[in-house]
Amino acid sequence: MAGNKRAGFKLATYQSSEGPRAGLVVGEEVFDAAKVTGKPAYATVAGILADWKTAEGALKKATAGAAKSRAKRQPLRKTKLLAPVPFPPTIFCAGANYADHAAAMARRQGHPEPADPHELGLKPWHFIKAGRTITAPGATVKASHYAKDLDWEIELAAVIGKPAKDVPLNKALSYVAGYTIANDFSARDRGRRPGVEETSFFKMDWTKHKSFDGSCPIGPWIVPASDIADPQNLELKLWVNDELKQDSNSSKMLFTLAEQIAQLSINMTLHPGDLILTGTPSGTGAESGEFLKAGDVVKVWIEGIGEFSNKIA
Asked: What pLDDT shows up at residue 7?
């Protein structure tokens, strides 16, 4: 499955002879973002996102003139792509945010199907994944020694493009610079503190569960929000060793991305480069009792964005 087919650009971080650089992906070619725009601050994706209001226009202008530009370019197929946001300030992850996943987990535990949280007066809730958990598309994730119950979770990830605080619902999406794909790898057997009773309020260990090295591959690039007509209507798929495991649509989110941004920004500022992982659909290992092992290859794909794979070691 190919990446985004729209005419325009995708924003990436690629490995150059000068080290990691922000790249402008136009068709099957990669341009150095700073050099093609003439703006040294755009050498990193963080620098671009910090100036997103101006940068988006500059990148679109560079894209329009890319074919005739004298700027050096390189073939995408020969370019090593890194995580598009290598060091996000914060990674916010929505918990239990797909109706199909919530229903499947309830069945697994012998509980009745959960009601729509809106009917219960509930708001979106998130946990935080450590920023240094980020890893690249195509990277090997060394985690089989760490977790026996290593799970996969494809997620649509929104990249914040300007400071957001106390954001009204109807303006929430205007704070999104673009979208990428995340795989929220989870160490299910590390999620409970050993020796702590099941009934204890303090039984959970979200750090060991979610923030081990390599537990957040993202990529392969950022597609500008202006190129995604509706983030609540995107197909998502995940395969393990070419076997389809997750096959859903972002329309099945319980809380929309706009609702999530509005809730997160209450008396807290979201910053450019922050990632919001919007939840995962049904088909996770936790639902079936099947988990990843060394040698497995996990591939993720989201409509309009692209695909990438990671191998488990």
From this structure: 57
Contact 161, 172 (CB under 8 A): no
Judged on CB neighbours under 10 Å (0-12, 13-18, 19+), 281 is buried
Which residues neighbour 296 within 8 Å (Cβ) at sequence distance 6 or greater?
A: 240, 241, 311, 312
112 lies in some domain: yes
d(CA 36, CA 152): 37
Q: What is the pLDDT of residue 105?
A: 86
In the prediction, which pLDDT does 147 show? 97
Q: Does residue 57 sit in the same domain as residue 147?
A: no
Tell me what pLDDT residue 5 has: 44
- Are residue 72 and residue 100 in the same domain, yes or no? no
**103 and 54 in one domain?**
no
Q: Which domain holds residue 129?
A: 91-312
Q: Cβ–Cβ contacts within 10 Å for residue 36, how many? A: 26
pLDDT of res. 3: 41
Confidence (pLDDT) at 70: 86
Residue 167 confidence (pLDDT)? 98
Task: Give the H or E element holding residue 100.
Answer: helix 99-108
What residues of the chain score a pLDDT lower than 70? 1-7
Q: Are residues 162 and 68 in the same domain?
A: no
Predicted pLDDT of residue 4: 39
Q: Report whether 212 contacts 184 (CB < 8 A).
A: no
Instruction: Give CA–CA dist 222/204, Å, rounded.
Output: 33
Do 184 and 69 reside in the same domain of the chain? no
List the beta strands (DSSP E) in 95-185: 126-129, 134-135, 140-141, 150-151, 154-160, 176-183
Of the CA atoms within 13 Å of residue 208, those in its CB half-sphere come to 14
